[in-house]
Amino acid sequence: MSKSQYVKDLTFGEAVDSIFVVKSKQLMPFRDRLGNYLALELVDKTGSIQGRIWDEAETFDQVINEKDVVRVKGRVELFKQTRQLRISDVTKCQKGEYDLFDLVMHTDKDIEQMFEKVLRTANTISNPYLQKLVMSFLSDPSFVHDFKIAPASLRFHHNWLGGLLEHVVSVLDIAEIICRTHKGIDRDLLITGAILHDVGKVREYVWDPMIDLTDEGRLLGHVILSDEMITERIRELPSFPKELLLRVRHMVISHHGESEFGAPKRPMTVEAMALHLIENLDAQLARFTTFVEEQRELGKVWTDYERLLERRIFIGYEGEVESYAGETTESELEMPEEEMQGGETAEQT
């Protein structure tokens, strides 16, 4: 069944027949009579909505589980000025009966183009050991399948399908600039770290039908998983230099920078420090910009307090910056500086 109704677009009184994921469910007692109703939280890629099954709640509770993909029929009502679905029927969907990209937020970039960019960059690594290591991942169909679609986090940054790949591409772009502007950085090593530093996230998360942590993700985390995966690949590469192995592993385990942020070691090589700063820059800016855009849509001047960022962010007055920036014409951009200042020169002032 193709999905045409999304949570964010549902309006009061609208009849609903669409597919959602059951994020949570709970049997609740009626306040004024005997019996129970079933309270559901339903989600898709655009948001969440509460749902209520008033009749035969126990029957539905037995056949519906959390994280099930379900087809829901009902109507949108208002409860305390908040939208709520009055559900008349729910049926479980099987894989192949829904499109995951309808249910889970995903990158707006072209996944295949991003992966091709990673491949092209990997092929520019001149160190044969590092290139073989990187290509051992990028030529593995099973790894590539997950690498293309995995999220980069549960909540903080790039927390959507394709988010890991999007993050890696951004880190690569910044790494290339850093290598051009700062001497003494081993480009091959930094590019290797940029591509491989988060490979463990393909095992840290699940994403069908919703993004969540795996058991090993909760117990170990992607830093340890990434180090384990890289070490296993290196064992299969004959005569891999010992020092190079140490440098690669160190980049990966230190890329969070400090122990309070999950790094077993602080960066102690130039490439490790560069990778930490680049990776953190992209992650922080991604969280900032994503949150600002979400709040901008609500017409806010300041965002709500964001717990993960520990601050509110100034968005600005609608249209003011854009209208001011738009006043600069192409002819003004070509105008000599003294003319832009009304004819005065530094000597005249």
N/C terminus separation: 72 Å
Order of helices and strands: EEEHEEHHHHHHHEEHHHHHHH
The second-level CATH architecture of the largest domain is: Orthogonal Bundle
- The domain count comes to 2
Instruction: Tell me the name of the CATH class of the largest domain.
Output: Mainly Alpha
Major beta sheet, strand line-up: 1-2-3-5-4
Largest sheet: 5 strands, mixed, barrel
Structural class: alpha+beta
Number of helices: 15
CATH topology of the largest domain: Hypothetical protein af1432
Strand content: 15-25%
Overview features:
5-stranded mixed beta barrel; 2 domains; 15 helices; 42% helix; Hypothetical protein af1432; alpha+beta; 7 strands; 349 residues; two-stranded antiparallel sheet; disordered C terminus; OB fold (Dihydrolipoamide Acetyltransferase, E2P)
Give a summary of the structure in a few sentences.
Helix content is 42%, strand content 16%. It has a 5-stranded mixed barrel. A two-stranded antiparallel sheet has the order 6-7. The protein has 349 residues and is α+β, with helices and mostly antiparallel strands.
